[in-house]
Amino acid sequence: MEDRLFRNAMGKFATGVTVITTTLDDETYGMTANAFMSVSLNPPLVVVSIGEKASMLSRIEQSNTFAVSILEENQKALSQHFAGQRQEGQEIPFGELEGYPVIDGSVAQVVCDVVSTHVEGDHSLFIGKVKAIHIEDYNPLLFFNGGYKKLAVDELV
């Protein structure tokens, strides 16, 4: 199977956009990711998938913690910043939830301690036990078919 065919097919799955953050040696690091999902309700567990070439991989391995900020529809510039498309002078609205770094103004913030790691293919899956959650009533930033999207206001019947 061609890599491009696989990528195109996976791009047909609409996702939210998150910034994964962690702190190491008093420095906060972040990366944009859409490979995030819930795993278990009891205990509350989530998983993030980090590529083997991402600098965030070793940072989460060392800190053994991560936070997930689900971005709000007007936070596209933050997504691009943490995906490596940095804008000169852009301020990052880091906040804190229970001592974990999060993105202020995001739809939801989920902070976790790593409970297990699984290496699969060219990614590591970090399973995190949820320690705290903060939720706002905002619309999420979405990603579909290689581009950013906004949630339609009409609901399906």
Automatic annotation (TrEMBL):
InterPro entries xrefs: Flavin_Rdtase-like_dom, NADH-dep_flavin_reductase, Split_barrel_FMN-bd
Regions annotated as coiled coil: none
Keywords: Oxidoreductase
GO molecular function annotation: FMN binding; riboflavin reductase (NADPH) activity
Keyword Oxidoreductase belongs to the record: yes
Domain Flavin reductase like: 10-150
Keyword Endoplasmic reticulum tagged: no
Stated name of the protein: Flavin reductase
